[in-house]
Amino acid sequence: MKIYNLCFLGFGNVGRALVSLLVEKREEMRESYGIEWRIKGVATRRMGWLVHADGFDVEMLLEGGAVSNIKPPAPTDVHEWLRAASADVLFETTSLDPFTGQPGTEHIRAALEHGAHVITANKGPIVHAYEELSQLALKQGRRFMFEATVADCLPVFSMFRECLPTARVLGFRAVLNSTTSIIIEEMERGRTFEEGVRRAQELGVTETEPGYDVDGWDSAVKVCAMARVLMRAPLKLEEVLREGIRNLDSKRIRSARDAGHPIKLVSRAQASQGRVKASVRPEQVAPDDPLAMASGTSLLIYFELDVLPGLTMMAYSPNLKSTAYGLLADFINAVKEEK
Amino acid sequence: MKIYNLCFLGFGNVGRALVSLLVEKREEMRESYGIEWRIKGVATRRMGWLVHADGFDVEMLLEGGAVSNIKPPAPTDVHEWLRAASADVLFETTSLDPFTGQPGTEHIRAALEHGAHVITANKGPIVHAYEELSQLALKQGRRFMFEATVADCLPVFSMFRECLPTARVLGFRAVLNSTTSIIIEEMERGRTFEEGVRRAQELGVTETEPGYDVDGWDSAVKVCAMARVLMRAPLKLEEVLREGIRNLDSKRIRSARDAGHPIKLVSRAQASQGRVKASVRPEQVAPDDPLAMASGTSLLIYFELDVLPGLTMMAYSPNLKSTAYGLLADFINAVKEEK
Fold first, then answer.
1. Residues A29-43: tens digit of each pLDDT
2. Residue of B nearest to A24 (CA)
């Protein structure tokens, strides 16, 4: 039985949901996988770099009452913090910067150099530093995992890695952003764009900066992550043809819906002549297209494979626990064969 | 690099498609997984127990021109055949007997006892002997795998095994049989039940005995296999409430379709108070239900998990290559960590 020292960098809704899920699954992790854990580090902009030598009290942590108990000097940066916490695993859940991938990339690099596995829900680093961070992880004998970055807990990356050997992804079409689905559906019901944004915020599905959702950045970053990992194509963010939903006309949205071919923000990538072409833009979806199923907060990916015309995966009404489970699954998968 | 001696028991369309796929993926299997193979045994009722000491010529095998080249006496049963072929892997693709699981179970037991991995597309043995065969495989240090038994190459079993640790399957709803979908859709278009059966046979999707499809046996066997493996419930075939499509009235089918809630043969299992209740029967499906997407030969499963309200997987228009890939993936996954 190994006790893993866990560190949380970023501790918002997803981080909290993960702690609750770790508690819920504690016994099964111990019995089925021989995995025990304690939370030794938590860091946020507001709280600073906290470390608890024996592991934080989970209840207090969830109530926001965490304080460091280590001897001074207190850590002042990510390196000192990881060292002080003897981190075995870093959960990186800081918010997305699609243009630089920072500070996530810096955190992940530091943790891999320290010798910890890294599990992230942050898409930025995949797009901007996937090759570098993967190489570093390999060199360090640690894992760099990111299942929760795309479609919550759908096992998009692990399914291809673990279950579908030699299958080739020729392309995919997907609905990868629920904020835009919600806004479009509110507008179908006659509400304004702004009311749609508020509705998505109430549901808690928007990025910290909603512009990243409505202008297609969030989807474009996910397309790049999938193209990089699943299609081995070094697709850059600026190569994704990108059109958001900000300029969609209410009348057009309603008439498309009335004609039975509603508009969705569709993400695509397709291999063609040795290159991958990708786009994110509003498209009308036919009623017999599998993408038609992606409504509300549901996320859907339709993969075209060389061995199957269409492998479709959908996360129907995912919730915070679902995202947290994406991180938990990565943690267990990263360490289950270590002992 | 290990050279695996492959044996095929049953050599119909799926077996042939698997041989073609093995050839297509030969180089990638060698380079990415260090796996090499040769086909040393092929057995069918018509051909008998054939063995080729150096591996059959693949082209000749696909053209039906295989003959044994080993010294007499020729093998006269599965035990002698596996031994003569020094089988490392058995691909068992004989046809389904839902009521006894034979002779598949006997073949699989023999192969595991011989010391071979077993990959099967035959559902019968899962329902009738899953626990026994799994235990035997464990004892022998070999794998007993059966991904292709449910929904072709959708990684139903391996996804839960490899990607979704600690996730609990609370229930599922599914369309698992394409013959019945085809028949119902033909009847929606005004054709007769018999014309529907013929159409499904033309498409090559029916069981050897089409009654197993139309009376719901094929689906019920799949429900049992999934309940056993994914929900750890010893559900018996006779415990599945089962109603086929033979007595469906054309008028009812058409009016359901016209009302936008078409009839499909829906398979269900649900955990409730420590037991699993299961059914296979014609149900009307609402247009916003993910199951509505399962038309034509497509197969779809909607899993209710404790960590996600609905994880949906769909095989859209699978073909023979897809089924064969289910077997190939099992083979690679069974042996990839052996070296």
1. 999 999 999 999 999
2. B166
